[in-house]
Amino acid sequence: MLIKIARGWEIPESLVTPEDIFLNRRNFIAGAGSIAAVGALPEFAFAAGEADPSADLYPAKRNPKYKIPLELTPEKVNLTYNNFYEFGSHKKISEAAQALPIRPWEVVFDGDVEKPFKLGIDELIRKMTLQERLYRHRCVEAWSMTIPWSGFPMKDLVALAKPLSKAKYVRMETFKNPSVARGQKAAWYPWPYVEGLTIEEATNELAFMVTGAYGKPMAKQFGAPLRLAVPWKYGFKHIKSIVRFTFTDKQPKSFWEQIQAREYGFWANVNPKVSHPRWSQATERVLGTSIRVPTLLFNGYGEYVADMYKGMEDKQSTWM
Ligand code: MTE
Question: Which of 21, 132, 213, 299 could crosslink 62 through cysteines, CB 3.0-4.6 Å?
């Protein structure tokens, strides 16, 4: 198909030169407006080599309910094969991503909530009980992994935010800081990265806020210090390094939907029978192995999520 806009993988390599790690004490959340700081503990920066301030919370106790059919993807495979366009348009962004300062890190809760507020990431994490879940992760590029995420159910975060009854969606936003994330200098992208879920999806038991992986605080290339895992949806819904949750009655327009709505829709539920315009979704390459396996409807999580989409099954847009 004809694609007029420059795509991620067409960004020149020169835009993603790795940088040295440095600390940025500036609060780079723009437009926090009238947000009240609610009892925020002081956040402190930590340098390369220093322990992450949340390190004592890991490894979190595994929740045995969520099982995976295949072996876990080796950590070193996952650490060096990532999509994080803020740091480059190819899979080898791990070195560049180390430039991201992840303390201080404030998370804003606003929109249709009882009272907007912001919280430092460590205060947020310590309000929650962390657990480990083994989840499948399926990218629309037809590769997959299986990952031991640590974090907490997104429904606990929604409860903390206290949305009003008129809120139907939660819109999530990644940081914007082109001085460290060189990919954000590419003006043809609609930065910051945005994703959205319905409130029903966000409060589904599978929707998980990730803070750690492989038994420790999450590596920067995975989207530290806070990312989403919604394993029945394609990987692009799994927004990384989140700084804002906005509750709204309007369906958010995601980053990829703004770029190419015909290829990346709001729902993005995994379905092997509905092809992406450029990739069949029938099978997937299992990273870290030499095998390809058939892709499962809802990535194998139908028992948890299919009910949310009753009556929408015939709509192509539910799947892509
Ligand atoms: N979040 C942000 N902020 N920026 C991104 O480029 N890429 C998405 C998603 N979240 C992306 C993002 C895509 S396309 C995928 S497949 C997954 O992150 C990749 O997650 P992984 O690198 O942990 O496998």
Answer: 132
